[in-house]
Amino acid sequence: MIPETDPPVLLRAEDIQVRRGGANVLDIPALAIHPGQTLALIGPNGAGKSTLLLTLACLLKTFRGRIFFGEREIDTHHGDFDYRRHVTMVFQEPLLFDATVFDNVATGLRIRGVAQAEIERTVSRYLGLFGIASLARRSARTLSGGEAQRTSLARALVTKPQIVFLDEPFSSLDPPTREGLIGDLEQILQETRTTAVIATHDQPEALRLADRVAVMNEGRIVQIGPVTEVMNRPANGFVASFVGVETVLPGQVIKTADGVFVVAVEGGEIQAMGHVLIGERVLCCIHPEQVVLSADPTFSASGAGNVLSGMIRKITPIGLFYRVRLDCGFELVSYVTRRSQEDLELEEGKRVIAFFKATSVHVIPQKESPLL
Amino acid sequence: MFTLDSEVLGITFLSLRISGTATFISLLIGITAGTVVALTRFPGRQLIVSLINTGMGLPPVVVGLFVTIFLWRSGPFGFLEILYTPTAIILAQAIIATPIITGITLAAIQHLPPNLRLQILALGASRIQMVWILVKEARLPLLAAVMAGFGGVISEVGASIMVGGNIKGYSRVLTTATVMETGRGNFDIAIALSVILMLLAFGINAVLTRIQQRERPR
Fold first, then answer.
1. Measured at the alpha carbon of residue B205, what is the angle toward residues B199 and B209, in degrees to the nearest 5?
2. What is the dihedral of CA B189, B190, B196, B199, to 10 degrees?
3. What are the residue ranges of helices labelled H in B56-170?
4. Which among A59, A98, A159 is the nearest to B121, CB-wise?
5. Comparing A91 with A176, which gets the higher pLDDT?
């Protein structure tokens, strides 16, 4: 794990453990949340993302550990009331009250005893920000999924929290609704400079909203860092598979010269760049976006480093792209656009040339990859 | 009935006052107890829930018997000297209605979304504010609790006759009067009292049902 050293820190957790049924479900030695930034928690179901959010929001008792809000240690055993008034949380389900949209959004302000005139002003502003001003007098029970989640987000942010914890708030929405809401939330978080921690399954969502990303598994943070660093330089095979690296190949360094080395993998060889020792066991991670295909068997890409002949095993449409599984002696995955798929006349069983640069291969020394 | 006999009117108003007061007391106790049991976890909770559910079917004559024993001159609360008074009937009816309202409140709060409680706390609510918002969210099922509680006590006869004594002009209510008139063979009066009783029960439930259905989530 990359150590957390970036100042300033708004929220700091130390040695947090949460137990359920006698077993540790969360074990976080250290975590820092920086003001104005968005941290995305990604990981499979049961990784501990929601538990971490609830713990940081002081809605779940810890077994041990300390959490500091600025310099003040919060009382994690008795649901620190003062701290809870500075943060908020949005859940996967909108959890709206049986009242109008306006009254739902006004709830946090009424709880705080804000004057009615101020409530009218602030709620109207946030209804406008989230594009639901026309729904103000509608019963929350009559809203669509997207409208309900917009109301839920407005209800949380209207209190101007210093940190908002978001537990997969878009997961139940259809893609166009989700896209619109993510765009609005992104803009509002930036405008209000609100610090956010968001749990998500969705890698593009994390890429779009987050400044940093933490990959979680079995109650632990496996890797945390800036989004591009975690995406491009996963710390181990688990993280690699979770950040969209579809080709992860174990192998052994057999040749090295001037920073370029050759790794023997089962069924072939791969060129990569870096400083390793001959005989060292490594994992080669290749993002599917980095693998380019050509239908011309005589094709030779200068400087590509890796030029491999392979047969297409499977073509699967994934939104705007096709996922192409190749057999190059080992399995290699490439994403191609619909246009490229048509131009290259790609079809299962066809032989193609796949090429990717030696610099596109991220190499993980295998002794640091106990999860694969 | 149609000539508005003063004795019948008196009995009707007394029935409404006694059962209304008993239901109100039961609401205060039942909503509080049901909410506490729904929101807390403690050893023996399962037993308490079983007792509440059993209490929902408490036979009025059993309640009447024990209230009589407790309020009897030589009983532990005999010094209160309230046996054979409207207060004794209110007490007995409140004991009958409280488990009904507690049980329905318990179920209503437990049926709210599990994360709603956390969501309310996450909006900055204190524990008391959280409970208040939860009870407001469960208001439709709680109207059913009012209907069930009031319906249960206005129509019961066993406890009322045992602890109230059916004293003319003092502790005689619609049900006890109906029993008495039936025993005397005055079926016309008994039928008239029964019709009033049913109209009362229907009228109050109709009003509450109207409120409930108007607010029902679409």
1. 140
2. -140
3. 60-71, 86-110, 116-122, 127-137, 139-154, 158-164
4. A59
5. A91
- Contact across the interface for B118 and A91, Cβ inside 8 Å: yes
Q: Looking at beta carbons, which residues of chain B come within 8 Å of A112? A: 124
Question: Which among B58, B56, B80, B53 has a CA at the least distance from the CA of B68?
Answer: B80
Give the 3-state DSSP-derived string for A118-155, with helices as H, strands as E and coil as C: HHHHHHHHHHHHCCCHHHCCCEHHHCCHHHHHHHHHHH
Place of tokens 């006052």: B17
Q: Name chain B contacts of A93, Cβ cutoff 8 Å.
A: 113, 115
B124 contacts A111? CB cut-off 8 A: yes
**Do residues A11 and A56 lie in contact, with contact meaning Cβ atoms separated by under 8 Å?**
yes
CATH number of A243-368: 2.40.50.100
Inter-chain contact A93–B113, Cβ cutoff 8 Å?
yes
B129 with A111: Cβ contact below 8 A: yes
A160 dihedral zone (left: phi>0; alpha: psi -120 to 50; beta): left
d(CA A95, CA A93): 5
**Residues B102 and B181 sit within 8 Å (Cβ to Cβ):** no
At A43-74, the pLDDT tens digits run 998 899 999 999 999 999 999 999 999 999 99
Q: Which class would CATH give B6-215? A: mainly alpha
ipTM of the complex: 0.84
* Closest-CA residue of chain B to A91: B119
Q: Are A313 and A350 in contact (CB under 8 A)?
A: no
Q: Where are the domains of chain A?
A: 11-240, 243-368
Kindly report, residue by residue over A301-360, the tens digit of the pLDDT. 666 689 999 999 999 998 788 999 999 999 999 999 988 888 888 899 999 999 999 999
- Sequence-distant (6+) residues with CB within 8 A of B217 are A98, A139, A141, B140
Residues of B in Cβ contact (< 8 Å) with A111: 123-126, 129
Of the pLDDT bands very low, low, confident and very high (cuts 50, 70, 90), residue A172 is confident
Rounded Cα distance between A224 and A215, Å, is 6
Question: What angle, 0 to 180 degrees and rounded to 10, lies between the N-to-C axes of helices A116-129 and A101-111?
Answer: 130
Chain B residues whose CB is inside 8 A of the A108 CB are 123-124
Class of domain A11-240: alpha beta
For chain B (length 218 residues), average pLDDT per consecutive 10?
75 95 96 95 94 93 96 94 96 96 95 94 95 94 90 93 93 94 92 92 86 66
Domain spans of chain B, in order of start: 6-215
Q: Choose the mutation target among A107, A138, A197 for the interface with B, i.e. most B CBs under 10 Å.
A: A107
Average pLDDT over residues A215-243: 91
